[in-house]
């Protein structure tokens, strides 16, 4: 088995995930570039560097997850870092529709259950499915780390504050999927604490990517850095935390 640490980044063919993959490669990792479209993963892997491998991985597809897991087991035998980055913000926002307008059509009273299920399928159940599949490989590593890429918009504490300016867009689809992901993060951290595997959630900040039609204010380099910092935590680092750059705690 190789000495060099091995990382898997889901949804690494573009955006923040691609940048996390590049940064981990620069830190000396063999990087598995997760992509639901294998060819786009191959293009991204070329950008990531010599020791990057495209890995077909659709986090909503059990057969894809099983095949990816088997490939890592057979080729590499373990996983040191898992970055659960893949996510979607919606499936049916109309082109040109603002986030505020979309939020009005996805309130608890009028949200389509199919829309909510589709987003949670990727952002919540997809993360749990990948976690369950990869755990035996993570347990083969000496000090595995899991980073769940969440969002500040999922913070119940922040959204409960009447002074928070963006609370009008808190709703059951994307924001609550990140709240649920935060809950999963804590449950995973508690489960793995006795084994020394650290599980943390991070928020990249409002980053210029496809997810928000490139409306974000941060660069992907800025968006990736907290996930990378947390992936590299030493034995004395925390587990079960939710932070943004640089190590600022976000209330759950
Ligand atoms: N951008 C922001 O402002 C912001 C803020 C807070 C949190 N985040 C979080 O940051 C993470 C990365 O988002 P991003 O902004 O970089 O968005 P992005 O550019 O849209 O990238 C999302 C990635 O997830 C992949 N993906 C979607 N569904 C998938 C599935 N079923 N299986 C595997 N991969 C899938 C996408 O693949 P395709 O290319 O095939 O679609 C893409 O590679 C997400 O967790 C997001 O919620 C982003």
Keywords:
single chain, 252 residues, alpha/beta, Rossmann fold, oxidoreductase, NAD(P)-dependent dehydrogenase (Short-subunit alcohol dehydrogenase family), Sc_DH/Rdtase_CS, oxidoreductase activity, acting on the CH-OH group of donors, NAD or NADP as acceptor
Number of DSSP E strands: 8
Shape: globular
Binned strand content: 5-15%
In CATH, what is the class? Alpha Beta
Can you give the mean pLDDT?
Answer: 97
InterPro entries: CBR1-like, NAD(P)-bd_dom_sf, Sc_DH/Rdtase_CS, SDR_fam
Family: Belongs to the short-chain dehydrogenases/reductases (SDR) family.
Protein name: NAD(P)-dependent dehydrogenase (Short-subunit alcohol dehydrogenase family)
GO molecular function: oxidoreductase activity, acting on the CH-OH group of donors, NAD or NADP as acceptor
How would you explain this protein's 3D organization?
- The chain is of the alpha/beta class and 252 residues long.
- It has one domain (6-249): NAD(P)-binding Rossmann-like Domain (Rossmann fold), CATH 3.40.50.
- It has eight helices and eight strands, in the order E-H-E-H-E-H-E-H-H-E-H-H-E-H-E-E.
- An eight-stranded mixed β-sheet has the order 3-2-1-4-5-6-7-8, sandwiched between helices.
- The longest helix is centred in the middle third of the chain and has 26 residues, at 113-138.
- The model has no long low-confidence stretch (mean pLDDT 97).
- NADP nicotinamide-adenine-dinucleotide phosphate (NAP) is lined by residues 10-11, 13-17, 36-37, 57-60, 85-88, 122, 126, 149, 151, 203-204, 206-207, 209-212, 216.
